[in-house]
Structure formats: structure tokens, C-alpha cells
Structure prediction request, 223 residues.
Amino acid sequence: MDKISKISIIIPTYNEAGNIASLIDRLEKILSEVTEVEVNKVSEINKNKTNEINKIENEIIVIDDSSPDGTSKIIEKLARKYSNLQLIKREKKFGLGSAYQKGVSVSSGDIIVTMDADLSHDPRVIKEFIKKISEGYEVVIGSRYIYRGSIVGWNLYRKMISRLANIIARLLLGLKIRDVTSGYRCYTKKAIEKIGFSKIKSSGYSFLLESVFIAERVGLKCL
Prediction:
């Protein structure tokens, strides 16, 4: 990708009052470092712009499905502190897939990151996402099943179910991507368009599976 001028972070929430403030604060810190540091790495790859100092704009879009624990009120308070934070409140729980679709529909970034709000996704990985996208990848998965990968906060049973689901999905669908159920992802805007996010009918975690299936089938460069 020749130039990254803006990054959008999309976070679906439901009953995340205990986590959301910590996540947003950590994201804001990382994103401030990205604008100052990571652009230089992108510029190094683009040899014609090595000496050009740019700023990567950013936005954080939270889609809350009327969490009864007051998640949206916490986000509203944080939005008074962070001007790049946007809250979309929905009247009921519509599901993960539609939350991604809604977030994407209002985003304006050249690259789009989706992540969970339960603190299982390390915001520091966003720097690696940017690096890989700048190297030419169009979809990058924050995989838990690679060397030095990990899952924070999951018990053994949940880890086993996730691992088994990935193995079955990959075998049945012939997918090359190792972690097809991870919600921690980075897409280019063009990749989102080629996948046809708005047309995917699946909801929940099946949305994650269908989107990577389409990504591979349309020939996107995935990692």
C-alpha cells in the first residue's frame, strides 16, 4: 500500500463496562505513537518518500448494542476527552456481524482494524498490522495460533473449542488462513470493498469465517 493516511478502529461492545475505559486509554496511547513512529517505517518502504514526515489520522468507532451495564455511558464520557472517539448506540443486540458492517459503513480510514473489547486483543499489535499492510498485504489476521501467539483470559475449554473450530473450518473450506475465527483483523479499504462486507448475511462468529473465505476466493493477499 503506497500511503496510509488514516486508520479506523472498530469495536463492538456488549456489557464491557469493566474493560472499555482501559482499552480506549491504551488504544489512544498506541495510536499517538503510531502517528509519530510507525509512519517512518511506512515511508522507509516507499523509497520515494523516505524523507517525508506524515501524520496518520485515526478514529475509534464503538458500536454498543444497548449494554445494560452502562458501557455506552462510559464511552460517552471518554468521547468528551478523546475527539477521535465515536459511539454508535443500537436499540438492541443485533450481533457481531452487523456491528462490523455498521462500523465499516461509517469509517473513513484507509485501513480498518476490528477488535474485541474484552482486553484479549493487545493494542500494540496494531503497529504490526500497519507494517504488514504497508508491505502489500490486504488482510492481516491477529492470529492466536502462530509462534509466540497467545490468548489472554480464556480457560482451557474455550481454547480447545476455538482450536477445534478452526481446524474443522480450514479442512472443510480449504482455507490457508490459520485463525479463521479471530476478530482481531486489519483490512485495507479496498479489501473491504472486494469482500463485500455489506452483503454478508452471516452473523456472530460465522461472519468472521465467511469474510475470510471470500477474501481468499477473490484473491486478496492475506496473512
Remarks:
- The chain is about 45% helix and 15% strand.
- Residues 6-217 form a domain with the Spore Coat Polysaccharide Biosynthesis Protein SpsA; Chain A fold (CATH 3.90.550.10).
- The chain has one domain: 6-217.
